[in-house]
Specification:
The protein is of the alpha/beta class. The protein has ten helices and 17 strands. The longest helix has 16 residues.
């Protein structure tokens, strides 16, 4: 019988493999799998891309001597699927191969699975162990779990502030044409990496007007998120980078629903909780995460309505003395990481 320590070692390998798919598998979860015979890994795999073979299939395919499968244990960080989607059910594939034992990190929150994969395996005589490194397995798929348990995308807030607590100097529409960079170049590259990991990105009207952002991934290799902007009264000019037709842009507004090139206008009711309505729209579209890079007003709206899961705050060494005050998160102790002269604070909303 494999010890708990060894089980955790193999599950950590599943997590390391699964993380390789970050930014490529949505709306599917991140999954890694290893197959162990006599305390030796004989096959491993992960889910590479949405619509492609699942981790368990890739792990089985990697086993050179298939006769060993009948006396091996399969490890996987998420419950094997039991339904047909883009690919056949992994639980059925495991049963067909004759693998006698499966160790699972955590059950799947998707109602289409949600214990059905485990039951199918057990009913076929497979020995199933669950809950190995469960917290780490859930954290890796935090977007997937948030989407299915909270019925909304995971919301990640990001901003940069000076050491004296300001996000920006006071600027008018015709004022300073460029952003006032607070964080260093390495920190800004990290932000592009983060963008590549999320399915959508959101700013408000003022940020779009003053910073004219592209909201794409330029300093990192990966997919760009769906660009989104809140523009209640459609004040933004068509000359902005958001409307360059290089990639899709969603404009949430109070006036119209229409499609113009790659720009889609989505009308929302701004008299109630517009953020709640926006998140419901994204949920219905299957978008599991939104990266909010807005200004003070938009960020504070998410904080005030408690519609957020993480906040990542860069603090640079400079000082503005006056300007736009940064949001303040109270009663949560953040983790922190230094990037040269910058410090990044990570807040998790419990």
């Amino acid at each position: 019988m494999t010890s708990g320590v060894l089980q955790e070692t193999y599950m950590k390998r599943c997590l390391d493999l699964a993380a390789l798919g970050l930014g490529h598998t949505a709306s599917n979860p991140l999954v890694g799998s290893v197959i162990v015979h006599n305390d030796r890994i004989i096959g491993e795999g992960f889910h590479h891309v949405y619509g492609g073979p699942h981790a368990e299939v890739n792990a089985v395919d990697a086993v050179a001597d298939k006769s060993l499968l009948s006396v091996s244990t399969l490890y996987v960080n998420l419950e094997p699927c039991s339904h047909s989607g883009k690919t056949p059910p992994c639980a059925d594939m495991i049963i067909r191969t004759g693998i006698p034992e499966v160790v699972i990190g955590t059950s799947d929150p998707n109602p289409l699975v949600s214990g059905n994969g485990i039951r199918k395996l057990e009913q076929s005589g497979v020995k199933v162990t669950t809950g190995v490194l469960q917290d780490q397995c859930r954290d890796l798929n935090k977007r997937f779990f948030t989407y299915h348990t909270k019925k909304r995308p995971m919301v990640i807030l990001k901003w940069a502030q000076t050491s004296d607590g300001f996000m920006d100097v006071l600027r008018e529409n015709a004022g300073v044409p460029e952003p006032n960079w607070i964080s260093n170049e390495i920190s800004r590259i990290l932000v592009h990496k983060w963008r590549s990991e999320e399915q959508s990105i959101l700013v408000g009207t003022r940020t779009a007007l003053l910073d004219n952002p592209r909201l794409n991934v330029r300093q990192w290799s990966g997919n760009s998120p769906v660009r989104m902007v809140l523009d209640r009264n459609l004040r933004l000019p068509a000359t902005l980078n958001l409307f360059d037709n290089s990639m899709p842009t969603l404009v949430f507004n109070a006036l119209k629903d229409s499609q113009e090139g790659l720009t889609q206008y989505v009308r929302l009711d701004f008299t109630g909780s517009v953020l709640g309505e926006l998140l419901r729209y994204l949920y219905d579209k299957g978008l599991q995460s939104v990266f909010v890079e807005g200004g003070q007003k938009l960020l504070n709206s998410f904080l005030d309505e408690n519609l957020w899961d993480e906040a990542r705050v860069f603090t640079g060494p400079g000082m503005f003395g006056a300007g736009i005050s940064a949001p303040v998160i109270r009663h949560i102790t953040p983790a922190k990481h230094r990037i040269r002269e910058d410090v990044v604070f990570f807040y998790h909303n419990q």
